[in-house]
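SAMPLE LOG
Freezer: B-3
Tube label: C17
Construct: single chain, 373 aa
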Amino acid sequence: MNNKYDNNEDDISRYRRKLEPTLSAREARIIGPFMALTTPLFGVAEKAFAANGAGSFDETLNSYFPGSISNNEITYRMTSALRGRGYKEGNTLIGSSFCSDEINDTSSSFVTLLAKKLTTLQDGGIFNLGGLGGLPFVGTSGFGAFTSHCPGNGKIVIVFGPHVGISDDGIVGKVERIGKKNPSTSCGAAVGAYKAIKAGAVDYDAPYNVRDFQEEYIIKNLRKKLGPLAEIEKKGDDGAVAYVTQQMYNLVWDIVRRNVEDFTSKPGFWDKCTEVTLLGGILVNRGHGVGLLGGDDLFQPLTLTTIAAAGESNIYGDVFGDLRTPKTNVDSGFNRDKIKQVRGANVFEEQPVPKIPSPAPAAQIPVPVPKSP
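STRUCTURE (predicted):
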C-alpha cells in the first residue's frame, strides 16, 4: 500500500522547499547548496554514512532507531520550524538535558548547532539541565533558575533525551572514541545500571549514597520501567541495550514533563514567556576513533510539542512526519491532562519498587499424634 512515507528522500526535498522561505536570503544561498550536496551523506538515516563502507552501523541504526537523522538535518528542520514561530536571536533561551558524557558536547553536537542558529554568539549559551543518562538532575531549583533567564516576552526551547552508541561494526551500546583503540560503552550510566539490575546486587530500600547519587537514582528508577528481565534478555544484547535506552528516554521525559508542568503553572509565568518548545528523542553516537572517518551523530526525534498560555500544539507531524520512526514510539505530546500531578512533591520522589514475591513455602503435612492408651 502506498503512503507518504514510502519515498523518504522525495518527501524531505518537498519539506525543504516548503520551509526554505523561513530562512534569510543569505542563509538560503549558503544552506541550500550545502544541504543539496550533503543529503547523500547525512540527509536520511537509511542512506547515512555509506562512505564508511562497513554497513553494519547503518543496518543496526535502521533496525533499532529508525527515523534517526543527522545533527545537521535536525538542526535545519528545527531552525526552519522555530523561526516560523518567531524564535530568533535575542528572544530565545535554550536548555538541554543530555548526558554529561563529552561525546554529546562537541562543536558539531546538535544542541550546539541549534544554539548557533537561534541565539546570539556573544550571549546565547546553553543551560545544561542534564546529568548522567540525560536525566535533569538540576531539579526544581535548576529549572527555576533556567526559566528566570528567559528574555522578556521571549521563548524557551528544551531538548532532552538519553544517548546510545553504535560501533562501526554495529554493536549497540559501544562507540569508538578519539584516541582510544577499542570501543567503550555509551551510555555507560544506562548500561551500567542495567547490569547492576541484572546482577541483583541492589538494595532498593537503602538511602542514596551522595557519592554516587545520580547512578543510584537511575538504577532504582530504571528498574521500574524495565519489566521482566527474562523478556529483555530474549531480545539479544543489541536489542536489550536498545530497549534499555528507550526506557531511559521515558525516565528522562517523565521528569522533564513534571518540571515543565510545574513552572508553566506558576502565576505570572506566561506574562514573561510566550512559548515553550519541547524536543525529546535519543542521541545516537557514532565512532570517531582510530581508523574511522567519523561524521555526524544522529538524533531519533520522539516528541515535539509547543506550550503557550492558550494551550498545546503538537507539531511533530509537521516537522518529522516523513520519518520512518514507528508511530507507536512517538509521544503524542505533553498530555498534561493525563499526568497525575503531586503538588508540592519533589519531582525526584520515588515510588516503591515492586517487590518480587518469594516462593510460597511447601505445604506442611500434619503428622498425626498417637493418642495415649
